[in-house]
Write a structure and sequence with these properties.
Blueprint lengths: L2 H25 L17 H7 L4 H4 L14 H8 L7 H11 L20 H7 L4 H5 L16 H10 L1 E3 L6 E3 L8 H4 L2
Antiparallel strand pairs: 1-2
Helix pairs in contact: 4-5
Length: about 190
């Protein structure tokens, strides 16, 4: 073999290797399945949403009318905790945040890639999809974690299977039949 041929093969191998790394890393963007960060306040969805049956939308009221579900303000927590477990160390952290007028620095658990558009209002409000569809059995989680991988394939699979009621009618169609497979719906 000539040097030129060996060099060309070597370049081809390196380029192929770099392309495979790029494809693998691109397919993992935003896929943080199992991610469960330690939060500044020990909050249990299992206790609140599970045992006490507090509805998701009580704390995450933005879900029905906004792109983001939102993180509840400390004052929402204190709606109950002015009377319940008010001396708890964790509740004292909430009181301190209110007194100092500083937001609690919660760590985001579910994070999509920057090039993905997702609207809670469209799914929860208009689509009437339950929170558990994407977030898993939150009412059983003492520590919040990302249950699903939230990959493009996972979302597309849901769009292929999910039924929606066409606005203003009783007609039921697949999301995929109403433009839900259009790339520009989620990527811009």
């Amino acid at each position: 073999m000539t040097r030129k041929l060996i060099f060309s093969l070597l370049i081809l191998l390196v380029v192929g290797f770099l392309i495979s790394i790029f494809i693998e890393s691109a397919s993992q963007v935003g896929n943080n399945q199992g991610y469960a960060p330690t939060q500044p306040i020990a909050f249990s969805h299992k206790l609140h949403a599970g045992e006490n049956e507090i509805q998701c939308l009580y704390c995450h009221s933005g879900s029905e009318r906004s792109r983001h579900a939102g993180i509840p303000s400390a004052s929402i927590c204190m709606n109950c905790h002015t009377n319940i477990k008010q001396d708890s160390e964790e509740i004292q952290k909430i009181k301190q945040a209110l007194e100092e007028q500083k937001p609690i620095q919660w760590k985001k658990v579910h994070r999509l890639a920057d090039f993905v558009y997702f609207s809670h209002e469209q799914h929860v409000g208009s689509g009437e999809i339950s929170c558990q569809t994407c977030h898993g059995p939150v009412d059983k989680m003492a520590i919040m974690r990302q249950e699903e991988d939230l990959s493009m394939g996972w979302c597309i699979d849901c769009h292929r299977k999910a039924d929606i009621v066409v606005h203003g009618t009783t007609d039921v169609k697949k999301v995929s039949d109403t433009g839900g497979m259009d790339c520009a719906k989620c990527h811009y």
